[in-house]
Amino acid sequence: MAKIKTMRMGVHATDLVACGEFNRMVCLRAGKIESVTLEEALSQMKLVNPASEIVHAARAIGTTFGDNA
Fold first, then answer.
1. Per-domain residue ranges of the chain
2. Is 9 exposed, middle or buried (0-12, 13-18, 19+ CB in 10 A)?
3. Which tens digits make up the pLDDT trace of 2-54?
4. How far apart are CA 39 and CA 59, in angstroms?
5. What Cα–Cα distance (Å) separates residue 58 from each residue in 28, 45, 48, 50?
6. Distance of CA 38 to the CA centre of its chain
7. Rounded to whole angstroms, what are the CA distances from 20 to 7, 34, 43, 64?
């Protein structure tokens, strides 16, 4: 399922470039692939629980977050 979502996001990003729509970010909203301006994407800080499964998975493959954990 994740591969399909990733492919859909990639196609949407490619379509944005083909249409000359730059300075946008592809996003998932309510199960639908959309895009938002970079200004909108960066307008609010989004926090991730450091104890979450996704952070654990990221650390397991060597991703770092600027800390020593």
1. 2-60
2. middle
3. 789 999 999 999 999 999 999 999 999 998 999 999 999 999 988 889 999 99
4. 29
5. 20, 20, 12, 11
6. 12
7. 20, 16, 23, 34
Place of tokens 């800080």: 45
Residue reference for tokens 């946008």: 24
Q: CB neighbours of 3 closer than 8 A, spacing ≥ 6? A: none
Amino acid at 51: A
Question: Which of these, 65, 34, 68, lies nearest to 52 by C-alpha position?
Answer: 65
Q: Within the chain, how many helices (H) and strands (E) appear?
A: 3, 2
For residues 61 and 44, what is the distance between their CA atoms, to the nearest angstrom? Answer: 28
pTM: 0.66
Enter the DSSP assignment of 36: E
Residue 52 and residue 44: Cα distance in Å, rounded? 20
